[in-house]
Amino acid sequence: MVCLGNICRSPLAEGIVRQIAADHQLDWEIASAGTGDWHVGQPADRRSIAVAKSYGYDISRQRARHFDSSMLDEYDQILVMDKNNLRDVLTLAKNDEQRRKVSLFLTENMDVTDPYYDDQLFDPVFLTIEERAKNLVKELMAKFS
Ligand code: 4NP
Known about the structure:
The chain is mainly alpha-helical. Helices cover 46% and strands 7% of the residues. Helix 1 (9-23) packs across helix 6. 4-nitrophenyl phosphate binds next to loops. Belongs to the low molecular weight phosphotyrosine protein phosphatase family.
């Protein structure tokens, strides 16, 4: 799960997808990272931690990482929150096998809105990610099983 800062959107995606995967008894390694490195080592934004907690998810122990090209080998699927992340991740891809792993988290070419500058966006962003995560896990189960 990849976004810009790895403190708002992708930590939510990481925590939600991990919990849904665990609910399906799936032994998947779920991680998140940011295309920018400003927040490396920091916890998620307090507003993401709070909205996740309010819906029953604990993302407080996750720490921000910087996306690097080794992750294109390490992980089977790279899900990015918006089209800027898509461009930045694809720039790091070295071959078609890596490029094929990368896709937008949402369907229909939609971006997950960056909520960083607007407190009001955290709740709708959470709900958008949670809604998509349920079908996403089903799609990935079909793809990788
Ligand atoms: P995120 O949000 O990409 O969803 O983690 C942002 C977090 C931090 C910044 C931008 C977006 N920033 O500019 O520091």
